[in-house]
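new request in #modeling-help
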Amino acid sequence: MKKISGNPYLLSSDNKILIDSIHLDELMEEYKTPLLVFLEERIRDNIKSFLNFFNEEFENFHCFYSLKANYLTEICKIVCSEGIGIKAVGWPELKLALKLGFSPNKIIVGGPYLPEMLIESCIKNKIKEIIIYSLSDIKKINNIAQKFNHVQNICIRVISQKYQSKLGIKFDDNQIKNLKDALSICKNIKVTSILSHFGTQMNNIGQFEQNIKTIISNLKLLLENKIFIENINLGGGFPEATVMKRDQLIKIARMIKDCFKKSSLVLPNISFEPGRYFVGDAGLFLSKIIRVSEDRWIFIDIGNHICPKFAKCSLRFYNASLIDEPHKYKTSIAGIVPTDQDVLAKNYFFTQKLREEDNVIITNTGAYCLTFSNRFPYVLPTIILVKGETVKTIFDPKFDKDFSLS
Ligand SMILES: Cc1ncc(COP(=O)(O)O)c(C=O)c1O
Protein backbone atom coordinates (compact mmCIF):
# COMPACT_ATOMS: atom_id res chain seq x y z
CA MET A 1 0.00 0.00 0.00
CA LYS A 2 1.18 3.52 -0.77
CA LYS A 3 1.18 6.32 1.78
CA ILE A 4 -0.76 9.42 0.80
CA SER A 5 0.92 12.67 1.86
CA GLY A 6 3.53 10.63 3.77
CA ASN A 7 0.87 9.74 6.32
CA PRO A 8 0.92 6.12 7.58
CA TYR A 9 -2.81 6.36 8.40
CA LEU A 10 -3.72 7.31 4.82
CA LEU A 11 -3.01 4.51 2.40
CA SER A 12 -3.97 3.68 -1.15
CA SER A 13 -3.90 0.62 -3.37
CA ASP A 14 -5.93 -0.46 -6.42
CA ASN A 15 -7.61 2.91 -6.56
CA LYS A 16 -9.00 2.41 -3.02
CA ILE A 17 -8.17 4.56 -0.04
CA LEU A 18 -7.88 3.45 3.54
CA ILE A 19 -8.23 6.04 6.34
CA ASP A 20 -6.74 4.26 9.34
CA SER A 21 -8.75 0.99 8.96
CA ILE A 22 -11.82 2.42 7.20
CA HIS A 23 -12.36 2.47 3.48
CA LEU A 24 -13.01 5.94 2.13
CA ASP A 25 -15.99 4.54 0.14
CA GLU A 26 -17.64 3.42 3.39
CA LEU A 27 -17.21 6.89 4.87
CA MET A 28 -18.64 8.46 1.73
CA GLU A 29 -21.74 6.25 1.99
CA GLU A 30 -22.33 7.44 5.52
CA TYR A 31 -21.29 11.09 5.35
CA LYS A 32 -21.54 13.97 2.92
CA THR A 33 -18.73 16.31 1.97
CA PRO A 34 -17.34 18.58 3.27
CA LEU A 35 -16.15 16.32 6.02
CA LEU A 36 -13.31 17.01 8.42
CA VAL A 37 -11.62 13.82 9.61
CA PHE A 38 -9.27 13.48 12.58
CA LEU A 39 -6.98 10.49 13.08
CA GLU A 40 -6.70 9.67 16.78
CA GLU A 41 -3.74 7.32 16.43
CA ARG A 42 -1.78 9.86 14.44
CA ILE A 43 -2.13 12.43 17.24
CA ARG A 44 -0.98 9.82 19.76
CA ASP A 45 1.98 8.77 17.57
CA ASN A 46 3.06 12.38 17.04
CA ILE A 47 2.99 13.16 20.77
CA LYS A 48 4.75 9.92 21.71
CA SER A 49 7.53 10.27 19.19
CA PHE A 50 8.15 13.94 20.08
CA LEU A 51 8.28 13.10 23.80
CA ASN A 52 10.41 9.98 23.37
CA PHE A 53 12.86 11.90 21.31
CA PHE A 54 13.28 15.03 23.44
CA ASN A 55 13.14 13.11 26.73
CA GLU A 56 16.07 11.06 25.47
CA GLU A 57 18.02 14.16 24.50
CA PHE A 58 17.32 16.38 27.52
CA GLU A 59 17.34 15.46 31.17
CA ASN A 60 14.61 17.80 32.27
CA PHE A 61 12.21 18.30 29.43
CA HIS A 62 8.57 19.45 29.49
CA CYS A 63 5.98 19.78 26.80
CA PHE A 64 2.82 21.92 26.72
CA TYR A 65 0.37 21.44 23.86
CA SER A 66 -0.59 24.78 22.36
CA LEU A 67 -4.33 24.45 22.68
CA LYS A 68 -5.14 27.15 20.16
CA ALA A 69 -3.92 24.84 17.37
CA ASN A 70 -7.02 22.71 17.89
CA TYR A 71 -9.30 23.11 20.89
CA LEU A 72 -11.98 20.54 20.04
CA THR A 73 -12.84 18.72 23.26
CA GLU A 74 -12.32 15.25 21.77
CA ILE A 75 -8.88 16.23 20.48
CA CYS A 76 -7.90 17.73 23.85
CA LYS A 77 -9.02 14.56 25.64
CA ILE A 78 -6.55 12.59 23.51
CA VAL A 79 -3.76 15.05 24.31
CA CYS A 80 -4.62 14.96 28.03
CA SER A 81 -4.51 11.15 28.11
CA GLU A 82 -0.96 11.23 26.72
CA GLY A 83 0.14 12.99 29.92
CA ILE A 84 1.54 16.22 28.50
CA GLY A 85 0.84 19.74 29.71
CA ILE A 86 -1.18 22.45 28.05
CA LYS A 87 -0.63 26.06 27.03
CA ALA A 88 -3.70 28.30 27.05
CA VAL A 89 -3.93 31.88 25.83
CA GLY A 90 -7.23 32.85 27.41
CA TRP A 91 -10.03 32.07 29.81
CA PRO A 92 -12.11 29.76 27.54
CA GLU A 93 -9.07 27.54 26.97
CA LEU A 94 -8.13 27.53 30.65
CA LYS A 95 -11.69 26.58 31.60
CA LEU A 96 -11.61 23.70 29.08
CA ALA A 97 -8.20 22.47 30.28
CA LEU A 98 -9.38 22.39 33.89
CA LYS A 99 -12.65 20.69 32.94
CA LEU A 100 -10.76 18.00 31.03
CA GLY A 101 -8.68 17.24 34.09
CA PHE A 102 -5.28 18.66 33.17
CA SER A 103 -3.43 19.06 36.44
CA PRO A 104 -2.86 22.79 37.25
CA ASN A 105 0.87 22.15 37.53
CA LYS A 106 0.82 21.11 33.87
CA ILE A 107 -1.01 24.22 32.68
CA ILE A 108 0.69 27.42 31.60
CA VAL A 109 -1.36 30.44 30.59
CA GLY A 110 -0.44 33.64 28.88
CA GLY A 111 -0.35 35.91 25.92
CA PRO A 112 -0.49 39.54 24.94
CA TYR A 113 -3.80 40.10 26.76
CA LEU A 114 -4.23 39.13 30.40
CA PRO A 115 -7.57 40.36 31.73
CA GLU A 116 -7.90 40.42 35.53
CA MET A 117 -10.49 37.67 35.49
CA LEU A 118 -8.00 35.36 33.73
CA ILE A 119 -5.18 36.22 36.16
CA GLU A 120 -7.47 35.64 39.13
CA SER A 121 -8.56 32.28 37.77
CA CYS A 122 -4.90 31.24 37.20
CA ILE A 123 -4.02 32.19 40.77
CA LYS A 124 -7.08 30.58 42.37
CA ASN A 125 -6.40 27.37 40.44
CA LYS A 126 -2.66 27.48 41.21
CA ILE A 127 -1.64 27.08 37.59
CA LYS A 128 2.05 26.51 36.97
CA GLU A 129 3.01 29.74 35.26
CA ILE A 130 1.56 32.92 33.82
CA ILE A 131 3.35 34.12 30.69
CA ILE A 132 3.64 37.89 30.34
CA TYR A 133 4.38 39.89 27.20
CA SER A 134 4.73 43.21 29.02
CA LEU A 135 6.42 44.13 32.31
CA SER A 136 3.37 46.17 33.29
CA ASP A 137 1.55 42.86 33.90
CA ILE A 138 3.88 42.07 36.82
CA LYS A 139 2.23 44.58 39.17
CA LYS A 140 -1.23 43.55 38.02
CA ILE A 141 -0.50 39.87 38.76
CA ASN A 142 1.25 40.69 42.04
CA ASN A 143 -1.77 42.64 43.35
CA ILE A 144 -4.09 39.71 42.69
CA ALA A 145 -1.61 37.13 44.03
CA GLN A 146 -1.28 39.18 47.21
CA LYS A 147 -5.05 39.06 47.68
CA PHE A 148 -4.90 35.27 47.60
CA ASN A 149 -1.69 35.04 49.63
CA HIS A 150 0.00 33.19 46.77
CA VAL A 151 3.41 33.47 45.08
CA GLN A 152 2.83 33.23 41.33
CA ASN A 153 5.47 31.88 38.96
CA ILE A 154 5.96 34.05 35.91
CA CYS A 155 7.43 33.35 32.49
CA ILE A 156 8.61 36.38 30.51
CA ARG A 157 8.23 36.27 26.76
CA VAL A 158 11.24 37.92 25.19
CA ILE A 159 11.05 39.37 21.73
CA SER A 160 12.50 36.99 19.14
CA GLN A 161 14.92 38.34 16.57
CA LYS A 162 12.38 37.74 13.84
CA TYR A 163 12.01 40.70 11.55
CA GLN A 164 9.38 43.15 12.82
CA SER A 165 8.20 40.94 15.70
CA LYS A 166 6.35 42.99 18.29
CA LEU A 167 5.46 40.24 20.74
CA GLY A 168 7.38 40.16 23.99
CA ILE A 169 9.92 42.21 25.91
CA LYS A 170 13.19 43.51 24.52
CA PHE A 171 15.62 43.65 27.40
CA ASP A 172 17.82 46.72 27.26
CA ASP A 173 19.23 48.67 30.26
CA ASN A 174 15.94 50.45 30.73
CA GLN A 175 13.79 47.31 30.70
CA ILE A 176 16.22 45.48 33.01
CA LYS A 177 15.90 48.37 35.45
CA ASN A 178 12.10 48.25 35.15
CA LEU A 179 12.14 44.51 35.84
CA LYS A 180 14.42 44.86 38.86
CA ASP A 181 12.32 47.70 40.24
CA ALA A 182 9.12 45.70 39.78
CA LEU A 183 10.56 42.57 41.38
CA SER A 184 11.92 44.53 44.36
CA ILE A 185 8.38 45.54 45.32
CA CYS A 186 6.34 42.60 43.99
CA LYS A 187 6.94 39.95 46.62
CA ASN A 188 4.18 37.67 45.33
CA ILE A 189 5.91 37.13 41.99
CA LYS A 190 8.72 34.76 41.09
CA VAL A 191 10.24 34.89 37.61
CA THR A 192 10.93 31.27 36.77
CA SER A 193 11.16 31.12 32.97
CA ILE A 194 11.75 32.98 29.76
CA LEU A 195 10.04 32.15 26.48
CA SER A 196 10.97 32.89 22.91
CA HIS A 197 8.78 31.69 20.04
CA PHE A 198 10.22 32.48 16.63
CA GLY A 199 7.37 31.67 14.26
CA THR A 200 5.31 28.96 12.67
CA GLN A 201 6.19 26.31 10.05
CA MET A 202 9.92 26.55 10.80
CA ASN A 203 11.38 24.22 8.22
CA ASN A 204 14.80 25.71 8.45
CA ILE A 205 17.03 24.79 11.39
CA GLY A 206 18.55 28.30 11.19
CA GLN A 207 15.25 29.67 12.57
CA PHE A 208 15.46 27.39 15.61
CA GLU A 209 19.09 28.45 16.00
CA GLN A 210 18.20 32.13 15.97
CA ASN A 211 15.58 31.44 18.61
CA ILE A 212 18.02 29.66 20.92
CA LYS A 213 20.56 32.44 20.47
CA THR A 214 17.91 34.96 21.53
CA ILE A 215 17.20 32.90 24.63
CA ILE A 216 20.91 32.62 25.48
CA SER A 217 21.62 36.33 25.12
CA ASN A 218 18.63 37.14 27.34
CA LEU A 219 19.67 34.55 29.92
CA LYS A 220 23.15 36.09 30.07
CA LEU A 221 21.77 39.58 30.50
CA LEU A 222 19.43 38.49 33.27
CA LEU A 223 22.17 36.50 34.99
CA GLU A 224 24.50 39.54 34.94
CA ASN A 225 21.72 41.34 36.77
CA LYS A 226 21.31 38.53 39.29
CA ILE A 227 17.97 37.38 37.93
CA PHE A 228 18.18 33.61 37.93
CA ILE A 229 16.02 31.73 35.42
CA GLU A 230 15.25 28.04 35.97
CA ASN A 231 13.48 27.17 32.72
CA ILE A 232 13.60 28.10 29.08
CA ASN A 233 10.54 27.73 26.87
CA LEU A 234 11.31 27.61 23.15
CA GLY A 235 7.69 27.92 22.00
CA GLY A 236 6.39 25.94 19.04
CA GLY A 237 6.82 26.38 15.32
CA PHE A 238 7.45 22.80 14.20
CA PRO A 239 5.78 21.94 10.88
CA GLU A 240 3.39 18.99 10.57
CA ALA A 241 5.07 15.73 11.66
CA THR A 242 4.95 14.30 8.12
CA VAL A 243 6.77 17.39 6.90
CA MET A 244 9.41 17.57 9.64
CA LYS A 245 11.28 14.28 9.79
CA ARG A 246 12.99 12.82 12.84
CA ASP A 247 16.50 13.63 11.60
CA GLN A 248 15.58 17.33 11.62
CA LEU A 249 14.53 16.99 15.28
CA ILE A 250 17.90 15.37 15.99
CA LYS A 251 19.68 18.33 14.39
CA ILE A 252 17.61 20.78 16.45
CA ALA A 253 18.38 19.02 19.74
CA ARG A 254 22.11 18.86 18.91
CA MET A 255 22.14 22.50 17.90
CA ILE A 256 20.53 23.51 21.23
CA LYS A 257 23.13 21.54 23.20
CA ASP A 258 25.94 22.97 21.07
CA CYS A 259 24.79 26.56 21.51
CA PHE A 260 24.69 26.12 25.29
CA LYS A 261 28.12 24.49 25.32
CA LYS A 262 29.57 27.43 23.39
CA SER A 263 27.80 29.92 25.66
CA SER A 264 29.28 28.29 28.79
CA LEU A 265 25.87 28.56 30.45
CA VAL A 266 24.41 25.50 32.13
CA LEU A 267 21.43 24.15 30.18
CA PRO A 268 18.32 24.98 32.26
CA ASN A 269 15.10 22.93 32.19
CA ILE A 270 13.79 23.06 28.67
CA SER A 271 10.26 23.10 27.32
CA PHE A 272 8.43 23.44 24.03
CA GLU A 273 4.81 24.31 23.35
CA PRO A 274 4.05 22.75 19.97
CA GLY A 275 0.62 22.83 18.41
CA ARG A 276 0.84 22.02 14.72
CA TYR A 277 3.35 19.16 15.11
CA PHE A 278 0.87 17.14 17.20
CA VAL A 279 -2.38 17.68 15.33
CA GLY A 280 -1.55 19.16 11.90
CA ASP A 281 -1.26 15.95 9.89
CA ALA A 282 -3.94 14.23 11.99
CA GLY A 283 -6.62 16.26 10.20
CA LEU A 284 -7.86 16.05 6.61
CA PHE A 285 -10.77 17.41 4.66
CA LEU A 286 -12.84 15.27 2.33
CA SER A 287 -14.29 17.52 -0.29
CA LYS A 288 -15.91 17.30 -3.74
CA ILE A 289 -15.29 18.99 -7.06
CA ILE A 290 -18.39 21.05 -7.78
CA ARG A 291 -17.26 22.72 -11.00
CA VAL A 292 -14.51 22.42 -13.56
CA SER A 293 -13.54 25.29 -15.82
CA GLU A 294 -11.79 25.06 -19.16
CA ASP A 295 -8.54 26.59 -17.99
CA ARG A 296 -7.92 23.79 -15.43
CA TRP A 297 -9.49 25.51 -12.46
CA ILE A 298 -11.56 23.32 -10.19
CA PHE A 299 -13.97 24.59 -7.56
CA ILE A 300 -14.40 22.43 -4.47
CA ASP A 301 -17.07 22.49 -1.77
CA ILE A 302 -14.90 24.06 0.91
CA GLY A 303 -13.07 27.37 0.89
CA ASN A 304 -11.03 29.77 2.92
CA HIS A 305 -13.89 30.23 5.40
CA ILE A 306 -13.06 26.80 6.85
CA CYS A 307 -9.63 26.09 5.36
CA PRO A 308 -8.08 29.55 5.77
CA LYS A 309 -4.75 30.79 4.44
CA PHE A 310 -4.16 32.32 7.86
CA ALA A 311 -3.80 28.76 9.26
CA LYS A 312 -0.60 28.36 7.19
CA CYS A 313 -1.09 24.60 6.75
CA SER A 314 1.09 22.60 4.36
CA LEU A 315 -1.95 21.75 2.25
CA ARG A 316 -1.72 18.77 -0.11
CA PHE A 317 -4.51 17.93 -2.59
CA TYR A 318 -5.33 14.48 -4.00
CA ASN A 319 -8.02 13.33 -6.39
CA ALA A 320 -9.40 10.56 -4.20
CA SER A 321 -11.62 9.21 -6.99
CA LEU A 322 -8.58 8.75 -9.26
CA ILE A 323 -5.92 8.20 -6.64
CA ASP A 324 -3.81 5.85 -8.79
CA GLU A 325 -3.65 8.31 -11.68
CA PRO A 326 -0.50 10.42 -11.91
CA HIS A 327 -0.85 13.76 -10.14
CA LYS A 328 1.36 15.77 -12.46
CA TYR A 329 -0.93 18.17 -14.33
CA LYS A 330 -1.01 21.75 -13.20
CA THR A 331 -4.41 22.62 -11.78
CA SER A 332 -5.70 25.56 -9.78
CA ILE A 333 -8.13 25.04 -6.95
CA ALA A 334 -10.73 27.55 -5.83
CA GLY A 335 -13.11 27.50 -2.88
CA ILE A 336 -16.76 28.44 -2.63
CA VAL A 337 -16.55 31.82 -0.95
CA PRO A 338 -17.89 34.21 -3.59
CA THR A 339 -14.75 36.23 -4.05
CA ASP A 340 -11.89 35.83 -6.50
CA GLN A 341 -9.60 35.74 -3.49
CA ASP A 342 -10.84 32.32 -2.43
CA VAL A 343 -7.97 30.39 -3.98
CA LEU A 344 -6.70 27.29 -2.21
CA ALA A 345 -3.85 26.48 -4.61
CA LYS A 346 -2.50 27.69 -7.93
CA ASN A 347 -0.80 25.44 -10.48
CA TYR A 348 -0.91 22.45 -8.16
CA PHE A 349 0.05 19.03 -9.56
CA PHE A 350 -3.21 17.09 -9.89
CA THR A 351 -4.79 14.47 -12.16
CA GLN A 352 -5.20 15.07 -15.89
CA LYS A 353 -8.91 14.25 -15.76
CA LEU A 354 -10.93 16.78 -13.81
CA ARG A 355 -14.51 15.66 -13.17
CA GLU A 356 -17.36 17.12 -11.22
CA GLU A 357 -18.31 14.93 -8.23
CA ASP A 358 -14.77 13.55 -7.83
CA ASN A 359 -13.72 13.43 -4.20
CA VAL A 360 -10.72 15.50 -3.17
CA ILE A 361 -8.62 14.83 -0.08
CA ILE A 362 -6.87 17.83 1.46
CA THR A 363 -4.28 16.78 4.01
CA ASN A 364 -2.56 18.60 6.90
CA THR A 365 -5.66 20.50 7.99
CA GLY A 366 -5.65 19.46 11.66
CA ALA A 367 -4.09 22.61 13.11
CA TYR A 368 -5.46 26.17 13.07
CA CYS A 369 -8.11 25.64 10.32
CA LEU A 370 -10.96 25.69 12.82
CA THR A 371 -9.22 28.30 14.97
CA PHE A 372 -8.92 30.80 12.13
CA SER A 373 -12.14 29.80 10.34
CA ASN A 374 -14.77 32.51 9.98
CA ARG A 375 -18.51 32.83 10.10
CA PHE A 376 -19.19 32.95 6.37
CA PRO A 377 -22.81 31.79 6.11
CA TYR A 378 -22.29 28.27 4.81
CA VAL A 379 -23.14 25.12 6.73
CA LEU A 380 -20.20 23.97 8.86
CA PRO A 381 -18.61 20.62 7.99
CA THR A 382 -19.33 17.45 9.92
CA ILE A 383 -16.29 16.47 11.98
CA ILE A 384 -15.44 12.85 12.74
CA LEU A 385 -12.76 11.11 14.76
CA VAL A 386 -11.41 7.85 13.32
CA LYS A 387 -9.60 5.23 15.34
CA GLY A 388 -9.00 1.83 13.74
CA GLU A 389 -12.39 0.84 12.39
CA THR A 390 -14.29 3.09 14.75
CA VAL A 391 -15.81 6.36 13.59
CA LYS A 392 -17.21 8.87 16.04
CA THR A 393 -19.05 11.99 14.95
CA ILE A 394 -17.70 14.78 17.13
CA PHE A 395 -19.45 17.69 15.46
CA ASP A 396 -22.69 17.46 13.53
CA PRO A 397 -23.92 20.80 12.17
CA LYS A 398 -27.49 19.46 12.19
CA PHE A 399 -27.47 19.36 15.98
CA ASP A 400 -24.36 21.19 17.20
CA LYS A 401 -24.49 24.94 16.77
CA ASP A 402 -20.81 25.76 16.79
CA PHE A 403 -17.43 24.41 17.81
CA SER A 404 -16.12 27.70 19.25
CA LEU A 405 -15.07 28.04 22.88
CA SER A 406 -16.75 30.66 25.02
C1 LIG B 1 4.11 31.56 22.00
C2 LIG B 1 3.66 30.45 21.12
N1 LIG B 1 3.93 29.19 21.48
C3 LIG B 1 3.53 28.13 20.72
C4 LIG B 1 2.81 28.32 19.56
C5 LIG B 1 2.40 27.11 18.76
O1 LIG B 1 2.98 27.13 17.52
P1 LIG B 1 2.94 25.88 16.52
O2 LIG B 1 1.53 25.44 16.44
O3 LIG B 1 3.45 26.45 15.25
O4 LIG B 1 3.82 24.83 17.11
C6 LIG B 1 2.52 29.62 19.14
C7 LIG B 1 1.79 29.86 17.89
O5 LIG B 1 1.58 30.92 17.41
C8 LIG B 1 2.94 30.73 19.94
O6 LIG B 1 2.69 31.99 19.59
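bot summary: The chain has a mean pLDDT of 96.
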